[in-house]
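Interim report to the steering committee. The following record documents the input for Molybdate ABC transporter substrate-binding protein (251 residues).
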Amino acid sequence: MRRLAPALLALALAATACGSEAAPQDGGRTLTVFAAASLTESFGALGKRFEAQNSGVTVKFSFEGSSALVQKLTQGAKADVFASADQANMDKAAKGEVIDGQPSVFATNRLAIAVAKGNPKGIKGLADLARDGLTVVVCAPQVPCGSAAKKVQQSSGVTLKPASEEQDVKSVLAKVRSGDADAGLVYVTDATSAAGKVDKVDFPESSGAINDYPIAVVKDAPQAALAKQFTDFVLSAEGKQELAKAGFGAP
């Protein structure tokens, strides 16, 4: 035992030293952001900028339909920031008492028609989507892009018969890109992000269903101070510039 004691002491000191060296590496902070699927590209870029300006911070995103994200939050999912693609789902989050403080609108968005590259079906407007023989896809009604699609149909008198109703706008876009659909109602920003893979057809009726995008800190956020810093960054001139580049309108 006397012979072993020095060796054991040396091992203990080495372990302590290793622990003290590892501590700073474990000192980073992770900010978890729940954001609407249509924010994938713009928030991805903003997240990288935010990390570059805040040493040791990692921004982790969960991009889905806003309604699915609200459901996760109300069921106890942990996040720091919630950004919705419409006011209705942010209101649900507020009613469910899962956000902290007053949400702020940081952008707007409107619908466009995504069609195959070259627009082989000759789609020129919303009314064309009601033609026989076309496979059209939209978002489900509870999803912001689906709610907007319903509004433009009601205001225009055009009734669509979609082949499917998807759970987020990226799924609609994917069906058009893959050729499973001839056309889909997506946001202007999504069609813009897929330029070169799909074509975008604007239609005037979209002005009747412009979506506000609100952002808020989540209640009991693990990184509350950092969450506030990120929401301020999104609302800043730098944030607005990145959003405008993606095709979003000003609040």
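Residues 4-26 have pLDDT under 50 and may be disordered. The committee is asked to note this result when reviewing the revised timeline.
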